[in-house]
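We close this part of the discussion by returning to an individual protein. Part of our work consisted of pairing the sequence of a single chain with a tokenised description of its backbone. No coordinates are needed to read the tokens, only the vocabulary itself. The amino acid sequence and the backbone structure tokens for this protein are reproduced below:
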Amino acid sequence: MSAAPNPPSWRQWLTVRLPVAVATGLIYAAGGGPLDPFAVVLVLTAALLARFEWTDLRDQLPPLPPPKPPLPSGPPPFGRVPRTAVLAGVFANLPALEAVLADARAQRVERIVCLGDLACAGPHDWQVIQRIREVSAWCLRGKWDRHLGHPEGLAGSSLLMMNHAVERAHARLQAHPGGPELLAWLASRPEAMQEGDLWFGVYPPPKPEPREACTISMGRRGYSFLDGHPLDQLPAGAEVGLLGPLWQAGLMQAGQHGTPAADLPPNLPLSERLILCVGSVGNPSGDDPRASYLILDQGYATFRRVEYDVAAFLADYERTDLPPQLGELRRRGEGYC
């Protein structure tokens, strides 16, 4: 129960209440013509009411309910790493790599990591390896990097164009003054990396693999899986995987099909048990021939597509002894391998 109101002081009466009462009476009097008994009654009534302290309406209302607790804010609980550009599948395409690096600088990334397949299938083998060595915090060794160190292991493979590309890249690197050192550096790279709940890997995994490897079938609109699921490759303690290099960027979750990056929202929040394919810098898909990479930032992932000088790449490609079919695929913007 609220305390009894204090009566108005003489100062309040003279400066506020009496003038208000008189003004009210005068207004009514002005509206009714000459001062009449009715106006006098109104003035006296207003003066009488001004003697009482009105109770604040807020004291008569029920108390407000307590405020609701604020919704959780901040990043998702997974993948809290510095703003990181994740690259993969450069395939000796220096114009595409430089375009991606320029875009990453414009996006103010704090570091760059690479998930392998730096050389082969393009004219800029040693340039790309040297550039990645300069700018990356760390780099993985991809499938074709693995073969680049041991091209004899491709004997009998059905990918004849890529076999020839690997052999020619190996020969060019051996002939370049710094090539053998670059080959040794690439051969010493790991094929997986784990940072907290994030796992970075390459596809396909090296053999022998303790976990059964999944076969990923890529189409223009996503992925399908055979012999298991890519999530089976996540090691203990990892909730989110980043996989490279595959020319189709997108998302893999539980189920038989994946989702291409074009169908995903920007600033995708990372949740448990998912794998992100970062796409390819130098060998992107036909649906979008621009170079592809991914930015991680405090629990969110953003797929980026960047235009690059395809004509400059093809001009250098045509001066090599690489299979012309690979150059034509690149001209049409079709991903392969």
User: Anything to note?
Assistant: Confidence is low (pLDDT under 50) at residues 52-58, 208-227. The domain at 84-332 is CATH 3.60.21.10 (Purple Acid Phosphatase; chain A, domain 2). DSSP finds nine helices and 14 strands in the chain.
